[in-house]
Each structure stands twice: as C-alpha cells, then as structure tokens.
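Q: Hi! First time doing this. I have a protein sequence and I read that you can turn it into a structure. Is that right? Here it is:
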Amino acid sequence: MDFKTQLLSTIADHAEEIRAIRRHLHMHPELSFQEEKTAAYVSQCLSKWQIDHQKGVGGHGIVALLGDPNKGPVVALRGDMDALPIQEENEVEYRSQNEGVMHACGHDVHTACLLGAARALKEAEGQLKGCVKLIFQPAEERLPGGASIMIDDGVLHKPDVWLIFGQHVYPDMEVGHLGFRPGMYMASADELYIHVMGRGGHAALPQKNVDPILISAHLITAIQQLVSRRSHPSSPTVVSIGKVVAAGSTNVIPKEVYMEGTIRCMDETWRKDLHELLTKLCTELCSSMGGSAEVEIRRGYPCLNNHETLTRWSKKTAAELHGDAHVHDLDLRMTAEDFAYFAQAVPACFYRLGVANAATGKGAPLHTSRFDIDEKALEVGASTMAYLAAMALEEGLDNVLKD
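A: Yes, that's right. Below is the predicted 3D structure, encoded as structure tokens:
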C-alpha cells in the first residue's frame, strides 16, 4: 500500500475521533492567552498516543516531535488554539458552553486537524525521512500574537525548522476543496488611534469654538485621499476608521473627538512610509484648522508572504492527494494572520481549507456568531497537513524549494 492510500485510510479510521476532538474544543473555547484547559486537552491527546511533547512554550503553547531530526530535515505544522469574544447563536449539540466565547474563527478546526495529522503520522513514524514538529499555538487573535512569542521562546530551533505549513478554514469555499496563493497573500495589520483636540462650547456660537467634529470630518476624508493618492495602485492599502466618539449634544460642541481605525498594507516599506504620512497628516491638518492631534499607531502583524516555490509545490502535492479539481488559486486578502511571523523566519506555505456546504447551510462568515463547518473538512485538513509534511521530507528540501 502506498503512503497516500495508507494515510487516507488511517484518517478515515480516526474520523470519528477527530470529529469528537473538534466538538470538545468547540464546546470549551478559551480566549487568547487563557488557553490553559485547551492546552491541557491537547497534551492529554498527545500523551494518549505516546507522542512526546513540551508544554508551556510561549505561554500555553505545545510543541511535539515525530520522527528523527538526525535522519533528515525538520518540517513544522502549525495550528492555533484560541477563540473569540463572541456569543454563539448556533443551535447545535456542541455549541459553546463558555458564555460570550466562541470558536468563530475555526481554531478548534485547526487544532483538531493538527491532532488528526499527528495521530496519522505517529502510525507512519518509521517511514518519515526526517522530523515533523507540531506547533500548537496560543493567542493568534491578540497582539503581539502567539506566533511571535513562541518564536522568541525558540520554537523554530532545537531542532531547527527548515520550512512550515499552516492552514485556515475558509467559509467561502465548499468542503473538500483547498486554496493556495504563492507570494503576497495577506496584509499587515496596525491599530490607529487619533485624539483630536479643539475648544468646546455652545453649538449656536461656533465662532467662539474650535470644532473638533468638523476637524475630524475633514481628517477622515483626507485619510482616504492619502490612501488613494499616495499609495501605489499595485500595492493594496486600506485605512478604515471604525470608531468615532464625540461626546457633545444638540447644543454642545465637545472639546475633543476620539477615533480608532485599522491600517492594512501588503508592502512593509510602504507600511512604514504610510505610518509617517498618517501622523504628519493628522497633526498638520488639525493644526491648520486651529486644533491639535495626538496620533498613536500600534504596530501589529506583518504582511504574510508565502514562499513562491514551496507554495507551488504544496498546491501540486495537495492535488495529488485530493485531485486537481479540488485545488484552487486564491485572491489577495486584506485580513491578517500572525502566521506571518513564521513566514518571515523560514520558508512557509499558508493555505485555505474549504468548510462550507451550501446544501446544509454551512458557510456563515468568520468572526460571526453563526460560523460553523461541514465536519467532513476535518478529514481533508488532517490528511493534507500530514501529506504535505511527509512528502516534503520524502522528496527532500532541495527539490521542494527548487525553482
């Protein structure tokens, strides 16, 4: 029996167990930096399958090893574990039991798939031409991001990781399908905070005031003109103001306005320039209108760039497993992912796992209270992760990363 047939058979044999794992995780979600019970459950699974692992890496992170790093390179697989502060509205038997917390971004799926891959690779451990490092990561949803913390804690060393794979659920794609994109894929994400200060007073006497609401209205428009006129048309850029607080009333002009927003870019050099341009625009425009501004930009996750050659190889290899008709090209996304930190450190491929089923109504957007998946995706996700890792070791990194 060849490895592909053996792997698919093993995953099918353990499908119910993988589904049960996902449902347990979905029922017991934990927020970023609070994944203590989730990590304990992952550790329990690994111990049951006699997979050696280390706990407490970069917080609640877990790292496990399969195979022998002395016999070949080290390939890493990453799955994140944290949930979101959302109240679940799905009426399912496995709905969240933790009030106000939900796996609305599919990290329960990611963790279950990685555990499923671990289970299958453990049974084929003697066939691995090297080592697979399993990275169960906390805190993807909150800055500074669990990936950066785990990297600082040495997760890519001892033994050194040569390349890494990560996957993410995709409710815009039907179950059974996968998506890949070489090169530039996901945006950087920074938080923008602006404090506009004027001089408040009676709304019927504007000549005696410096109206921060009027200044803010001009500023919001100017920010959009900055993006459209100063960014290169080939470099996608988004600056969105999502919150404006002006505590006046019908006859009161407030003395200050607070604004919050997000900055998304696809180019790290332009990202730095845009931060400087935004700060200058805010301070100078407000000053020109008689007010002042304080600007804070909290730097978030970097741009996610998939290794070109590795991702093309990954798409081809996934097609060998699931068929050409089930593997697709992806568009750019202005959302962000802290997997980008891994991609900055080693050759990386971050791809998408279809989880929708139009016939059964599965396909609600990510980060919503109705998000859920067709659980057949668990077998696809687990088998893909295991197959990519094993085949990368089998073919050797010189071939996998060769242009």
